[in-house]
Amino acid sequence: MKIATYNVNGINARLPVLLNWLEKSEPDIVCLQELKAPQEKFPEAILKERGYEAIWHGQKSWNGVAILSRVGKPLEVRRGLPGDPEDLHSRYIEAAVNGIIIGCLYLPNGNPAPGPKFDYKLLWFERLKRHAADLLKSNTPVVLAGDYNVMPTELDVYKPERWLDDALFRPEVRQAFHELVAQGWTDALRKLHPEETIYTFWDYFRNAYVRNAGLRIDHFLLSPKLKKRLLDCQVDKDVRGWEKSSDHAPVWILLK
Known about the structure:
Organism: Cellvibrio zantedeschiae
CATH superfamily: Endonuclease/exonuclease/phosphatase
Radius of gyration: 17 Å
Protein name: Exodeoxyribonuclease III
InterPro entries: AP_endonuc_1, AP_endonuclease_F1_BS, AP_endonuclease_F1_CS, Endo/exonu/phosph_ase_sf, Endo/exonuclease/phosphatase, ExoIII-like
CATH topology: Deoxyribonuclease I, Chain A
Family: Belongs to the DNA repair enzymes AP/ExoA family.
Strand order of the largest sheet: 3-4-2-1-14-13
Number of domains: 1
Structural class: alpha+beta
Shape: globular
Largest sheet: 6 strands, mixed
Domain Endonuclease/exonuclease/phosphatase: 4-248
Order of helices and strands: EHEHEEEEEHEHEHEHEEHEE
CATH architecture: 4-Layer Sandwich
Distance between the termini: 7 Å
Number of helices: 7
CATH class: Alpha Beta
């Protein structure tokens, strides 16, 4: 089973790129972030024509997450991360698909730091850790995939010394990620590529993609039952170079 995550940076603006990638890569399940579309503007019919059923949590202009599947309709478990009923951001959706719980997330950026946006990011991370711990207690196969907006180590960022004060690389954020993983999750890419420089995001500015001046901020965390089933994890880096592409590239895992 091939599961992918992709921050599309505007699903309707990038729809030709998304459809082209789906045709070439043929993932079974896809987590999408940054839909930047209200609920009624999600391209459900077009995706269904391509064989993908979907659930999504839209929001006008910002955020938005979705789960696509061509191996059975995603059965929605929850939308929105528990812990703050006043948080209306569309950043989390969870579904059961083909025997696996899929959590698709778009963690807050948090800049500028320090400040209210950074505080919100840290609080969101705490809520994620609590929910992730509950998911592990369920003893079911779980994938937590998406744009975490954190580079866990210096290996995950081009010229780390330039990012020390950024909300994606501040020590508090990296610590939160490491605490999350320490619950018992497996960082799929690092499990299979422990020492490689691999990025998932390249800014539109300063010719970053051509220079490979990137960041690794899109991650797959696997529960213990899925760790044993992990066969491969790769980044479809070439998609970032396509015309009118997102500034992220798709990341995927292959499970037994």
